[in-house]
Amino acid sequence: MTIDSSRQAALNARESLLAWTDEVDRSSLSDLRMVVSELVALSVVNGASQPIDLQLELDDGEARGSVVDAGHVARAFQGAGTGETDSWALQIVDALVDEWGVSPNSEGVWFRMPVERLNEI
After folding, report:
1. Which residues of the chain have pLDDT under 50?
2. How far is CA 98 from the centre of its chain?
3. Could you name the CATH architecture of 2-120?
C-alpha cells in the first residue's frame, strides 16, 4: 500500500488496518495500529517527501510489516536502544513488537509482532 507523505499519513495508515477488523482481535489490532501509526509518523517527521510504502502481512498469529520511504524512518532508528535519546515513538514500537530492524538497504524499517486471530479464539 502506498501512503502519501502528508500530515494525514499516520491516520491513513491506521485506517488501512480497518480491513483487519474481522481477522484480528481488538487488542492486537489496537497494538498493530499504534505501531504502524508511529512508524509512518516517524517517516513524515524525519523528512519523507515521497509516498511511503507500507507492507503488512498476517500469518500464523503474527503480523509482519515494513515502512519504506527512502531512508527517513530508518534514520529515526539509528542508535535506537541507547536509552535517553530514544523518542517516545521508538519506545512504543519497541514495547509492542517482538522484533524490528532497519532494512538491509537502510531505506525502511521492518517489524514482527504477535497478534491473536479471531479464528484462534
Report:
1. none
2. 12
3. 2-Layer Sandwich (3.30)
